[in-house]
Specification:
Strand content: 5-15%
Strand order of the largest sheet: 1-3-2-4-5-7-6
Number of domains: 1
Mean pLDDT: 93
CATH architecture: 3-Layer(aba) Sandwich
Largest sheet: 7 strands, parallel
Low-confidence stretches: none
């Protein structure tokens, strides 16, 4: 469903079957086949035109009759992380349509430097098109809007929202994995954070609606927005400003995941982070820029689906841990 090259084909063919969803479902007889739509960059260079094609595909599969529509903005290559998508498909018993749209063929570090505008335009076009279409449905029949982005995709997806307040008003839940410093919603949270809360894990307001998590154990409560950002993820902490100014996260007590010998030095710290970005995924899961099954914890907390107790979640986590990267 939808167009694209290798990344699109992987996304459209690797999802769980109805039979696999039923194995863990609370109501196995009610499971549906999830809708998947992917529009590749090769279809057209215009983001609005690609969004229109995605919307047409969603319409063709009656996506707006589902319980939720999940908009996932991919990484630079167009890759969609199944660890972000499959938890929602399982938690909702397949009653979800997921749509993604490619904006680049480059790895995220390169796309970050050369195609950030494309990520922003693509994310904004797709989210706004889907949100507008959902709003055409009668209020009581509207599917819930879920939004997610990883790495540069979190920059693209967040571009559709002016601030955190608009994000929480216009979405049921949103997940941002490994967000770079260009994500303005993350910067807003850092500015507004409660005094005493660190930059690596800011507390906004009462900490219940917007949640920042450095590790799986940090995901608690019933938030509406979750940022997953490891303290040792160079893609999160690389920032032009570190070339001449010490960031708060190095001035504050260091997170245990950060090398205790790390200190700020003009230009040196900036260059070290730039080099580390190139190998940010050369780690075990849940270190650096690899977040493993942590998105599952975030979706469980945000969606709070009845019947998904610890045992059922653990079984799903085991299944997800075997997914190919």
């Amino acid at each position: 469903m939808g167009g694209g090259r290798d990344e699109g084909r992987r996304f459209l063919t690797r999802g769980p079957s109805v039979e696999q969803l039923a194995q863990l479902a609370v109501e196995p007889d009610a499971v549906l086949e999830p809708v998947l739509v992917y529009v590749g960059r090769a279809t057209t260079d215009d983001a609005d035109e690609r969004a229109a094609l995605a919307l047409a595909e969603l319409e063709a599969f009656d996506a707006f009759e589902r319980e939720a529509v999940l908009v996932v903005v991919p990484t630079g290559t167009g890759w969609v992380n199944e660890q972000v998508v499959q938890p929602v498909e399982h938690l909702l018993g397949g009653d979800v349509a997921t749509v993604s749209m490619q904006y680049s063929h480059l790895p995220s570090p390169l796309a970050f430097l050369t195609e950030a505008d494309a990520a922003r335009d693509s994310g904004r076009a797709l989210v706004e098109a889907v949100r507008a279409r959902i709003d055409e449905e009668p209020v009581e029949e509207r599917p819930e809007l879920l939004v997610a982005g990883e790495s540069l995709g979190s920059f693209g997806g967040s571009a559709a929202f002016a601030d955190l307040d608009e994000l929480t008003v216009r979405t049921r839940a949103s997940l941002w994995v490994g967000p770079p410093e260009t994500v303005h919603l993350r910067r807003e949270a850092e500015r507004l954070r409660r005094p005493g809360s660190p930059q690596v894990k800011p507390v906004v307001g009462d900490g219940r609606t917007v949640l920042f998590a450095n590790r799986d154990a940090d995901v608690v409560g019933n938030p509406r927005v979750v940022f997953l950002q490891h303290a040792d993820d160079p893609i999160v902490w690389w920032d032009w400003q570190t070339a001449w100014e010490e960031p708060d996260w190095l001035d504050e007590p260091l997170d245990p995941a950060v090398n205790p010998e790390m200190e700020w030095a003009p230009l040196t710290t900036f260059l070290n982070l730039a080099v580390d970005m190139a190998v940010s995924t050369a780690f075990e899961e849940e270190l650096g820029h690899k977040y493993g099954t942590q998105p599952l914890s975030a979706w469980v907390a945000m969606l709070r689906q009845e019947g998904w107790d610890d045992e059922r979640v653990a079984a799903l986590r085991e299944r997800l841990s075997r997914l190919p990267r």
